[in-house]
């Protein structure tokens, strides 16, 4: 009853269109009209026109085994992600994590690992958006969430500022595992995937510590590497 009264007299405004949205942050109409991904590479989730491994992954297979992305990183998805990441709109985490819930992890001894932030970046931002998205996901899937199992030990230059070919070099040696992942299926959660260089380096680090399989679950995928 209290929730019904709150929805009626103090409704949220839809983050996308600004209309009354009741208890949710994105109204049903805007949620239904969000752009979708179709026919993507099963390894890197790049839109490819067909559900086959793309030429890039065939030539140079990344360390991760598969990627599932909920949405393309275009308007208004970019606004939603940036509002969480830079605008501290933490209420959006539940909505964004809900988009990933259908992409349940493969069977096996699965654990969820959010993409870690370097301590300096974490102090500056105050929270790790990947970890906030991962918390409700791990609960929904019923698998352990390992927040501190992997550290980012190098405060690398922001990937968005670098040319595509330099991004892999920028990430080398960026992560450290605190313990073994022997035999584990590791589900890495992140907000946006662009070239995949950061996710590739993290997967490489996880597999060097015994991970049997590393799969990515990302909210948004850029339409093409930039």
UniProtKB/TrEMBL annotation:
- What name does this protein carry? ComF family protein
Family stated for the protein in its record: Belongs to the ComF/GntX family.
Q: Where is the Phosphoribosyltransferase domain?
A: 130-219
Q: Where is the Double zinc ribbon domain?
A: 6-58
Pfam families per the record? DZR_2, Pribosyltran
Domain of life the protein comes from: Bacteria
Gene3D superfamilies, per database record: 3.40.50.2020
Coiled-coil positions? none
Q: InterPro entries recorded for this chain? A: ComF/GntX_DNA_util-trans, DZR_2, PRTase-like, PRTase_dom
């Amino acid at each position: 009853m209290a929730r019904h009264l709150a929805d009626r007299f103090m409704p949220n405004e839809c983050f996308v269109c600004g209309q009354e949205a009741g208890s949710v942050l994105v109204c049903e109409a805007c949620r239904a009209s969000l752009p979708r991904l179709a026919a993507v590479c099963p390894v890197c989730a790049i839109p490819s026109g067909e559900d086959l491994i793309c030429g890039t992954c065939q030539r140079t297979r990344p360390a991760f085994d598969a990627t599932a992305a909920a949405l393309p990183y275009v308007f208004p998805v970019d606004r939603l992600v940036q509002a969480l990441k830079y605008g501290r709109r933490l209420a959006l985490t539940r909505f964004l994590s809900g988009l990933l819930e259908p992409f349940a992890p493969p069977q096996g001894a699965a654990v969820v690992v959010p993409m870690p932030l370097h301590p300096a970046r974490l102090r500056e931002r105050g929270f790790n958006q990947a970890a906030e998205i991962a918390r409700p996901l791990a609960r929904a899937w019923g698998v352990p969430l390992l927040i501190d199992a992997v550290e980012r030990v190098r405060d690398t230059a922001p990937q968005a500022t670098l040319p595509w070919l330099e991004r892999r070099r920028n990430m080398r040696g960026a992560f450290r595992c605190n313990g073994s992942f022997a035999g584990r299926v590791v589900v890495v959660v992140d907000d946006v995937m662009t070239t995949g260089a950061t996710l590739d380096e993290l997967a490489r680090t996880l597999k060097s510590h015994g991970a049997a399989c590393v799969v990515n679950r990302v909210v948004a995928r850029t339409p093409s590497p930039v």
